[in-house]
Amino acid sequence: MELASSSSPPPPRASKIGTSNTKAIPRPKRRRSLCIGTCAVILVIVTVIVILALTVFKPKRPVTTVDSVSLKDLHADLDIRRLRVDLNVTLDVDLSIKNPNKVGFKYRNSSAVLIYRGDQVGDVAIPGGQMSADETRRVNVTLILMADRLLSQSQVYSDVFAGALPLSTHARVSGRVTILGIFKIHVVSTTWCDFTVNVSNRSVSDQSCTYKTKL
């Protein structure tokens, strides 16, 4: 007697627990998204820096002004027999350097010169330094006329005899303004003052100044 073999169907495979039906984002797309995000952040930062540089931190021109010119010492002697003028002039010049920027201003060693009818007859150094934002610094310099430089000027005899000596001072200050530690702006401030030294009453009059600053 043959026994009928019964074959049962194989049990169904158990589904994996915890599997997700969502597909993973391919790596190239993730890299592209990261690159776009980084570029967007950099663009925003650069835009903010540019806006600040053009508004709040926009470079302004430092100004050098001559507050006063006073006569410290004067000796004038006209030697008609020898056709010679013994002339010694010492001037006190008060300067102001104003930094209107919202950042510091660093200026290099500069100079102020004394001019008589187009010829330089004296000079003095202006030490360099650094100024904070919105600072005004006062500088006092002493200019001494060098008599030996007047030998080529024939008009000095008539000027001393007339009692009025026309002189000029010229000061030049150059430096730079650094904005946000990135932008470096070079600036030059110049001052030119004309005045008259009255030999008779030992005073300074007719002072007229012009100022110029360029970035």
What's the arrangement of secondary structure elements?
Blueprint: H1 27-54, E1 63-79, E2 84-98, E3 105-107, E4 110-116, E5 119-126, E6 129-131, E7 136-144, H2 155-162, E8 164-179, E9 183-198, E10 203-214
Antiparallel strand pairs: 1-2, 2-7, 3-6, 3-8, 4-5, 4-8, 8-9, 9-10
Keywords: Membrane, Transmembrane, Transmembrane helix
Membrane topology: Single-pass membrane protein
Protein name: Late embryogenesis abundant protein
Explain briefly what this protein structure is:
It contains two helices and ten strands.
Task: Pick out its properties.
single chain; 215 residues; alpha+beta; Immunoglobulin-like; 3-stranded antiparallel sheet; 10 strands; 17% helix; 49% strand; rod-shaped; membrane; LEA_2; Late embryogenesis abundant protein; transmembrane helix
